[in-house]
Automatic annotation (TrEMBL):
This is Acyltransferase. PROSITE patterns: HEXAPEP_TRANSFERASES (PS00101). Coiled coil: none annotated. Gene3D superfamilies: Hexapeptide repeat proteins.
Amino acid sequence: MRLLLRKLWCAFLRKNAMQSGRFVGLYRKFCRPDGEEWAQFLKRHHILYQMGEDCVVQMNVEITDPKHVRLGNNVRMTGCTLFGHDGSINMLKKMTGRCLDSVGKIDIRDNVFIGHRAIIMPNVTIGPNAIVAAGSVVTRDVPPNTIVGGVPAKPIGTVDAYLQRCEERTEALPWRHLLAADNFAPATEELTRLRCAYFFPPEESAG
């Protein structure tokens, strides 16, 4: 009965959040939408300046100025922060009595992945087919087909080369037949068994 009530409660919250933008805090707390669902919410209610199709935005993504952010198609973000302004301006205004402002857009083009704990600063454009490595601080534009990493972020490779390495490694995996091209493979018992046997061979486990 308790499980049924929880499902009904979540269905009520999800419907109201998606249709009218109501009870968003409760919706996030109890329904825990995944990145695809949360991106649909952001797009449906025009939270960002613009958002393309097939985006994934995990709930732990922090966007300080959503109306300054534009996302292309197939943008994936997890646990990162997008800063649209310089918070020190308020301190400087109070200190000097001057009229100051420091805001900027963040423009993320098609087919971009931004890793966990990466920080994107204002006035940055991330070109199409790019990857921002986890923990990076991006302070300048990222060229197309580029992987950037570090603090501050610098080019560390190309997406084309990384894709080729991934394809070569994948072909050698014993669970290759269980993978799908359009998404992560579900963590089935067979997939978990094959991966554990591959990662921890018997001779290593025996030690």
